[in-house]
Specification:
Layout: E1 2-6, E2 19-23, H1 24-72, E3 79-89, E4 95-97, E5 102-105, E6 111-114, E7 119-122, E8 128-131, E9 136-139, E10 145-148, E11 153-156, E12 162-166, E13 170-173, E14 179-189
Length: 199
């Protein structure tokens, strides 16, 4: 809509007039365009904020699960029980493992007496193994009872064994559910042991 403003005529400009054109339609249209731009910017900011919040929540959930898995994977140490002084009798039917020799103990329910610098490879189960100082025993069978004096070497790669050890025994325990009983001191009763045995 056009509004015409007529300028006043002076005496020297009689019969002519100045005209000013004011476009009110353009002014209104310009106002509408600015409002529309403002709304578009507000929507963009809102979407960006929502996406950022969603990413943050996902990261928090991932960290929580990783920590739980790590805790569940933690291994437990074998049971160690102080036994005080231990006196063990070597039975008459014990297999003697002489010095500088290695013997296999494959059976079950038997006994072996390992002399100084001798080595017993025990693959059987539920045996009694007596290891003198500087003797060695490698245990791969389950459920054995091993008695070792100070200075002996023991490597256990099986499960559910009971290890009676004196201070100073070199022990490698790679099995599961093995019980360690510490003895101070460890005494072997050889009154009925095979003769000459380790003497």
């Amino acid at each position: 809509m056009l509004a015409l403003a007529l300028g006043a005529c002076s005496s020297s400009d009689k019969g002519s007039g100045d005209v000013q054109v004011v476009d009110t339609t353009d002014t209104g249209a310009t106002g509408d365009t600015d409002t529309s731009d403002t709304d578009t910017d507000a929507d963009t900011d809102s979407d960006t904020d929502a996406d950022s919040d969603s990413d943050t929540d996902t990261d928090a959930d991932t960290d929580s699960d990783t920590d739980a898995d790590s805790d569940a994977d933690t291994d437990t140490a074998p049971t160690t029980t102080p036994g005080g002084a231990c006196g063990m009798a070597i039975p008459a039917n014990a297999t003697v493992v002489p010095r500088q020799q290695a013997l296999s103990i494959p059976g079950t329910g038997g006994a072996a007496w390992v002399c100084r610098n001798g080595t017993a490879n025990v693959s059987g189960a539920t045996n009694q193994i007596f290891v003198e100082a500087n003797g060695s025993a490698v245990i791969s069978g389950n459920g054995n009872a091993i008695y070792a004096r100070s200075g002996a070497d023991m490597a256990v790669f099986s499960d559910n064994n009971t290890l009676y050890i004196e201070g100073g025994v070199n022990l490698l325990d790679e099995g599961a559910n093995n019980t360690i009983v510490t003895c101070d001191p460890m005494n072997f009763d050889i009154s009925v042991a095979p003769s000459p045995g380790c003497n």
